[in-house]
Design goal:
Layout lengths: L2 H29 L4 E7 L7 H8 L2 H4 L3 E7 L2 H10 L4 E5 L1 H8 L4 E6 L7 E5 L16 E4 L5 H12 L8 E4 L4 H8 L5 E4 L3 H7 L3 E6 L3 H8 L6 E6 H6 L1 H20 L2 H7 L9 H11 L13 H10 L3 H4 L12 H9 L2
Parallel strand pairs: 1-2, 1-3, 6-7, 6-8
Antiparallel strand pairs: 3-10, 4-10, 5-8, 5-9
Length: 346
């Protein structure tokens, strides 16, 4: 064999490999029914949605062949409206919305779990309620939530119901998920607040609030709700999942990969990845807050079997619209995609 043969062989091999890679690249792109996906989220800066931020910042969505556009809203209820209105394909939001929407005849399905504890804290203002003794003291008061109808509102409603109050016994005010929420509490615009970290830790650090109910740990979550309580998920319409199963799988792959990264990451790793604005001007506080909620993050994206029933029982305690309907929990979530993603990212 002469040099000319090997030269021709090398050229042929290079052309074959180029064609093979191009073919498979196109094949991969073709498998994604919808490579461009819009995700709505209510409070992207919250630890509640940290897995979403990690997947975005570390390029995990891109690695799956996706172009993801994330739109941030003041609360989960607003993000849900974007899905219903057609301006978002998927929502990064609380699992409870899947139950509420089924009760309204508009079924949606959660397909990957981000949090296994709600991380929501209900606290009263030390400024306007220094003599607080029990839930009954909240009657007639103003409670700040991320947005009316969102998961913070639902958690507050449940705690009120356990204390003998109805949602109509208080006034709920949307205050968002960052500096605006802190300002509303400190200025006396609200008497209590249902919010998440890092907002809550910042208020605690300055002794602005007294915690009434805390769901940042698995232990506290079980005590308050009586079982495992699914928190943030990615959810979408039944129609989207049917038409775009490969796209949903790609989204789930990225999220599960982010969850597994978070299981091993240290606080300093988180600081390097999240946008500077998330830190609210205090890195130490952000780290402190992260350590409080770390165990609340799902390790694998799988919704626990007993979780949906806990969520349904919680909503039935204060929402007559849900209590009066027969809810098929099996249609509110699926672990099919998360299980496949775990097989890929062991």
């Amino acid at each position: 064999m002469n040099k000319n043969f090997w030269k021709q062989f090398a050229i042929a091999l290079a052309l074959f490999l180029a064609g093979y890679l191009t073919f498979n690249g196109n094949l991969f792109a073709q498998t994604l029914e919808k490579p461009k996906v819009s995700i709505a989220v209510g409070g992207k800066n919250l630890f509640y949605y940290l897995p979403l931020t990690i997947a975005e910042q570390l390029g995990y969505f891109k690695d799956e062949g996706l172009q993801v556009e994330i739109s941030d809203f003041a609360g989960g209820a607003k993000a849900l409206q974007a899905l219903v209105g057609g301006s978002a394909d998927v929502v990064s939001g609380a699992y409870e919305h899947t139950i509420n929407m089924q009760a309204k005849g508009q079924p949606i399905t959660a397909f990957v779990l981000q949090g296994r504890a709600p991380q929501i804290v209900l606290a009263v203002s030390n400024k306007t309620m220094p003599n607080y003794k029990s839930i009954a003291d909240l009657k007639g008061k103003k409670i700040g939530v991320t947005a009316p109808g969102s998961s913070t509102n639902m958690m507050a409603n449940f705690v009120l119901a356990k204390g003998g109050l109805k949602p109509s016994d208080v006034s709920f005010i949307g205050v968002g998920t960052s500096a605006g929420a802190i300002s509303a509490l400190r200025s006396g615009q609200i008497d209590a607040i249902a919010n998440l970290d890092p907002v809550v830790t910042m208020l605690q650090q300055k002794n602005d609030v007294r915690v009434v109910a805390d769901t940042r740990t698995l232990k506290d979550t079980n005590e308050i709700f009586g079982g495992p309580m699914p928190a943030a998920t990615l959810y979408t319409t039944e129609d989207f999942l049917k038409k775009n199963p490969n796209t949903a799988q790609a989204l789930t792959n990225a999220m599960v990969r982010a969850l597994k990264w978070l299981q091993k990451a240290g606080p300093s790793d988180i600081i390097k990845v999240v946008p500077e604005s998330y830190l609210l001007g205090d890195r130490g506080l952000y780290i402190d807050a992260f350590m409080k909620v770390r165990e609340a993050l799902s390790p694998d994206g799988i919704i626990p079997e007993a979780g949906p029933a806990t969520a349904l029982k919680t909503l039935q305690a204060f929402d007559t619209a849900v209590a009066s309907k027969n809810i098929d929990l099996a249609k509110t979530y699926t672990n099919e995609f998360a299980k496949k993603a775990n097989a890929k990212y062991k």
